[in-house]
Amino acid sequence: MKTTADSVILTCFTGLIFFVIFLIPDTSQSRQVSIDAETGGVWFSRNDVRIPNEGGTDFDMIDLIGSDLSFYYRLRLNVTFGERHTFRVLFAPLEKNGNGIFDEPVFFEETQFDAGSPVNGIYKFNTYRLTYRFTFYDRNNWTLGAGAAGLIRDAKVELNQAGASDSNTDLGFVPLLHVFAERNFGRNASVIFDAETLAGPQGRATDAALTFHYQLSDYWGVMAGYRLLEGGADVDEVYNFSWINYGLFGLTFNLR
Fold first, then answer.
1. Domain containing 53: what range?
2. pLDDT-derived band of residue 178, with 50, 70 and 90 as boundaries?
3. Bridge partners (DSSP) listed for residue 170
4. Is the pLDDT reported for residue 255 higher than 60?
5. Is 18 within a domain?
6. Whose CA is closest to 58, among 195, 216, 241?
7. pTM score, two decimals?
8. Environment class of residue 65 by beta-carbon count within 10 Å: exposed (0-12), middle (13-18) or buried (19+)?
9. Which of 8-22, 171-185, 214-228 has the lowest mean pLDDT?
10. How many domains does the chain have?
11. Is 10 domain-assigned?
12. I need a surface site. Which of 172, 187, 204, 254 has the fewest CB within 10 A?
């Protein structure tokens, strides 16, 4: 049976969820577990590509995949121990494809794509993430925390044209810093800023969201807001920078 990179990562991700929920001992006797399901519309403001970085042709992936609104979803597991130590596991798939025409010939990877003929483009950026946060301030209607995250990136840029096809795939690990701020308004309402980001000479990555949360009951809550995913890489093999917008709505289920 053939095992793809996606299935291997998802299997490891599922095992990590099992480990976080069931195998980490609850020494604090105050473990809180919740699951977030996020969905909504996603659209691209930027997606510049040049592969290879030296010798490749600059092109805008949005000319192929478009900037129209598309459906997306994310799943997130949150486990808090002793009210201060939070572990979070995120599954965030993202893939979009479309068709367009290049105004000039494009050399991509090892293949020449002609101008004036239809080209199909596929952009994939799946992420799997484990985050740890320490809450260092929790009073006066404010909750503040900081920590770090490890991201597994499963990315692909692919072009297809009659008689020509090529792709670039990237499976790698990226460390990120994490910051969290929540402002409470009464018992049930709050506004949260949540970000994971890091920048260096080879590139940068930012996943940040500003959301409004309302607790419907002890078990169920809703959220809505805006998310930004921005960054890319400028290395020998790849030049690719994107700006991706999310209009989000979500449900939270608290396991008591």
1. 47-255
2. very high
3. 155
4. yes
5. no
6. 241
7. 0.89
8. buried
9. 8-22
10. 1
11. no
12. 187
How distant, in Å, are the alpha carbons of 14, 36, 71, 135 from that of 46?
A: 32, 28, 18, 34
Q: In angstroms, what CA-CA distances link 194 with 182, 207, 228, 249, 256?
A: 8, 8, 11, 15, 24
Identify the band that residue 67 occupies on the pLDDT scale cut at 50, 70 and 90: very high
Is 71 part of a structural domain of the chain? yes
Report yes or no: 65 and 48 within 8 Å, Cβ to Cβ.
Answer: no
Band of the pLDDT at 82, cuts 50, 70, 90?
confident
142's tokens: 């404010």
114-139 pLDDT, tens digit each = 999 999 999 999 999 999 999 999 99
Tokens of 234: 């400028």
Instruction: Report the residue count for the chain.
Output: 256
Closest to 77 (Cα-Cα) out of 223, 205, 254: 254
